[in-house]
Amino acid sequence: MTRILIIKTGALGDVLRTTSILNGLTARFEDLHITWLTAHGARRLVESNGRIQRVIGVDPKDAEAIGLLSDELGQQGFDWVLSLDDEEPFCRLASAQASVRLSGAFINEAGERDYTADVAPWFDMGLLSHLGKEAADRLKVSNEESHPAIFARMFAVDMGQPDLALTKDEVAGAKAFYQSNGLDDGKPVIGLNTGAGGRWTSKTMDLAEVVNCMQDLHRALAGQCHFLILGGVAEAVRNQEILLRATSLGQDVHVVDGGDNNTLGAFAALVDRLQLLISSDSLAMHMAVARCRPVVAFFAPTSAAEIELYGLGEKVISTSPDYCSYQKDADNSSITGKRVAEAALRALGQESVT
Length: 354
Known about the structure:
Blueprint: E1 2-7, H1 12-18, H2 22-28, E2 32-39, E3 54-58, H3 63-74, E4 78-83, H4 88-96, E5 99-107, E6 113-115, H5 120-123, H6 133-142, H7 147-154, H8 168-180, E7 189-193, H9 207-220, E8 226-229, H10 236-246, E9 254-257, H11 264-272, E10 276-279, H12 283-290, E11 295-299, E12 313-317, H13 337-348
Parallel strand pairs: 1-2, 1-4, 2-3, 4-5, 7-8, 7-10, 8-9, 10-11, 11-12
Antiparallel strand pairs: 5-6
Helix pairs in contact: 1-12, 3-4, 8-11, 9-10, 9-13
C-alpha cells in the first residue's frame, strides 16, 4: 500500500480546488491510502470525497495541537508527504514525518521555511519564493497555466477536476428552498455571488454594476429568469444592499436572498441547482466548478489564468494596469455589469445585451 499525507488547510477555495489531484494520484498508485490534514472549517470540502481514506481537522492557529498531531502522524509513516501550506507549524509537521518522499514546504537545516525543488512551479510564485517577492509577482502575472495543470505537472499525474459530493439531506434541503421561493418553475436561476469576504475587497463587483448586470440580464431574457443572491456572513450587509437596490428594477424582477448562514454543504447544494453562477474569485466559484455548473467568474486583483473552468463558462478579466497585482485596493472598475451580463448570456446560449 502507498500511503500519502496531504497537508492543505486553507483557504476554503484553495482546499477544494486542490482535490483536482486526487483522480491522478488514484490512477498512479494502484493500492493507495490518502490522509488529508485540513482546517476544522474545511473538513466538509474533503470528507465526502471517496478517494480520501482519512480526514484530520486541526486549528491552523493552534501550534501546540499541530505539534501533538505531528507526533501521532509520525508513528504511522508515509511514502509521500505533500506539504502545500507554508505556515511554520505545518512546515515543521511535514519535516517531522518519516516519509520516503517530501514535496512542498518544510523546515531546512538552517531552521528556515523552505520548499522542495519539485514544487517550484507553484511556490516560486508565492510569498516563500526563492526568487524574491518582485520576481514572484512577475511570474504570477506572466503565468498562463492553471492551478490544476501546475499541480498535475508537479506531481506527475493527469490533470483532474475538483470534486465535491453532496449528501441526500443537502440535496433535499436545496430542493425545498427552491420550491418554497418559487425558483423551480423552469426559468433559469442565476446566482450572484459578487462579494469576496473581508480580506479581498477589490475582488468584489461594484454594487451599482451588480444591479446593472441584473437589469441587462432581465431585459435580454425577457424577464424569464430568477436571481439568487449568494454569500456568507461577511457578505450579509452587502447582499442586503443588493436586495434593496434591486427593488428599483421593478416588481417583475424576481430576486431571492440565499441567506448568509448556510453550512458549506447547504451552500454548495444551492449552487448545484443554478443554471448559471456569476461569481468573484471565491469559494462559490470553486464549488460551481466542482459541481460542473455553468459559471461566469470575474477577476481584478487575482490571476484568472490560475483558474480552470473546464469549459463550464467564461472569465471576465480586469483591463486595469494593476490586474493580478494581489492588492486589496486594485482597480476593479472595468468589471462592469454589461461585460458580465454579456458573458452570462453567452454561457446561457442566449443573445447578447443590446
